[in-house]
Amino acid sequence: MSRLRIRPRPPLALALPALLAVAFLLLPLIGILSRTQWGELGTHLTSPGVVEALRLSLVVSLWALGLSLLLGVPLAWLLARVPFKGKALVRSLVLLPMVLPPTVGGVALLLGFGRRGLLGPWLEGTFGITLPFHTSGAVVAATFVAMPFLVISLEGALGGLKQSYEETAASLGAPPVRVFFTVTLPMVAPGLVAGAALTWARALGEFGATITFAGNLPGTTQTLPLQVYLLLQDKPEAATSVSLLLLAIAMGVLIALRGRWTGTPVAAKEAGAAAVTEEPSPSVPGPDGGDGGPVPDGEAVRADGGDWALHAEVTGFNELTLDAGPGTTIAVVGENGAGKTTLLRALLGLTPRAHARLRLGDTDVTALPPHRRQVAWVPQDGALFPHLTALANTAYGLRARGAGRAEARREAQDWLDRLGVGHLARRKPAQLSGGQAQRVALARALAARPRLLLLDEPLAALDQTTRAHVRHTLRTHLAGFGGVCLIVTHDPVEAVSLADRVLVLSDGRTLQDAAPAEVTRRPRSPWVARMLGRNAWPGTASADGMALGPGGRLVVAESLPEGAAALAIIAPEAVAVHRERPGGSPRNVWPGTVREITAVGSRLRVLVGSAEVPDLVAEITPEAAAELGLADGAAVWTSVKATEVTLVRL
Ligand SMILES: Nc1ncnc2c1ncn2[C@@H]1O[C@H](COP(=O)(O)OP(=O)(O)OP(=O)(O)O)[C@@H](O)[C@H]1O
């Protein structure tokens, strides 16, 4: 294959002015370089006046940076996170010093903080502080013009940060300030560092506002840029040398940042994580049944050493009441927009769109903020904190609830071991496969000792093979969980194989809330029929298929380790109905009686009872039903090809 790269030629009408623009920007810089007296550079830069100005510039710019961080970080957070009236106005105010002529900024500062300004007399009378002609005045001027760089940069980084990280941290028990310092800040660190560097560079180069507001006193307010201005009149060669120094610093900052001013590299990290090849962990039983590692099947997991029943009355977008005993796993299903995520967020106390009166065990947690509810949440992407190792991620909830460092780490390691990912404890999330990350996310949620566990499509991101593995692990560990677990899913197999109950939502309301088998047999809507309208037979894997729980055999093309508990999933469309015993290929053939015929959309669902196997639902066209002369009580034969049966290991 040709690897020739075709480079389009830019049109001359655009290329020419663009080149002119580059030359326009470059020429003054070349001017500085060409006029610098390199032999005198050392002498110029070490003259007492320049050294003093440099010292002052560093003091002023670092103070300005400190003040900008102190005030600008919370301001950026407010702008990025809190909805309030007049936000656009505040943002314009922040940006104003960037577009305002600095001398005008200096005049404004004089009128605000000067001796005869609004606040000046009070500052002088109360604290004895006079800003003009004082180094603190130079700091104020530099902060005024430089802080916007920090605020804009950090607001951009915060805006790009998915809120699920912070929300997950809260669900693990961390109060807002802890979340800010342990999750938000480290994750926006690149944006913060970029903003801080630009702020510092801008403060270092500040001239107009400083000279107008703070004056030009050598040793007190005369910073390097002011020195350059003065030197230009007396010693132009020295001015060139100092300009070169400032130019080098500015270039250094820009090269160090290289386009990192806005946006967080977090997204890139996540892309890296997604690119990790999915591979079954050696610690999870493979399809051949080989148990490669330390997943302790059937081990009881008591998340909080107690049993927590759930009672929830949800109002708002969701209108429903939910009651569940300790240890119940409920699959929450429904069409897109049915309100599944909103329900979970309401239970967490994270959305104003729905309100949940929530009781867990004997405790009413309705009035508690998310971090005190002991409701752990695993969002769809797992939301593992990318800057922490798997171990530190898992220890996060324990630390947030006050456990000591060593104790939290020990317990976290224990949880990771239980979920079969103990050997990955030192890895960062970007170095985990999707399946491994999901298990770490689950370990982290369980380690936080929740009384209610919310899993939002926990297996959606996984490929089919890994999905089966993680489903198996999940089921094993949910079996010992003493609270209620809600799993949002779009996958019928997941709903049927993981849950004790299926909660079907439609427009935020409960359409059906019943055992999977019941929902499967009697779907209350075409959508539920499509979603869960499958036959699910429990049994034990045998050499050529499955021995069914209530008796009977099923021949299956795929095989599981002999003796494994499994669920056979048969799509109703795959069930053929005959009046006479069929010959030919299908090896699963049973006699039965039509119990019920219901219309689902344009098709008919035929429930066939049999003495040999559990009830079977077939889906056929009305034409076929008419041809067969089907009616309640009719004697029929059903058949299913071995290749049409999916075995799900339990
Ligand atoms: N912040 C919001 N503001 C306004 N409406 C919203 C907001 N979030 C969700 N909605 C709306 O609320 C309804 C329920 O949304 P929700 O995310 O709970 O659905 P879902 O069942 O989780 O859907 P999906 O399967 O697509 O994830 C949808 O109609 C959606 O458009």
From TrEMBL:
GO cellular component: plasma membrane
SMART domains: AAA (SM00382)
Keyword Isomerase: no
Superkingdom of source: Bacteria
Group of enzyme by EC: hydrolase
Transmembrane segments: 12-33, 53-80, 92-113, 133-158, 179-201
Cellular compartment(s): Cell membrane; Membrane
Membrane topology of this protein: Multi-pass membrane protein
An example Gene Ontology molecular-function term: ATP hydrolysis activity
Keywords: ATP-binding, Hydrolase, Membrane, Molybdenum, Nucleotide-binding, Transmembrane, Transmembrane helix, Transport
Pfam families: ABC_tran, BPD_transp_1, TOBE
EC number, as in UniProt: 3.6.3.30
Family: Belongs to the binding-protein-dependent transport system permease family.
Name listed for the protein in its UniProt record: Fe(3+) ions import ATP-binding protein FbpC
Organism in which the protein naturally occurs: Streptomyces lavendulae subsp. lavendulae
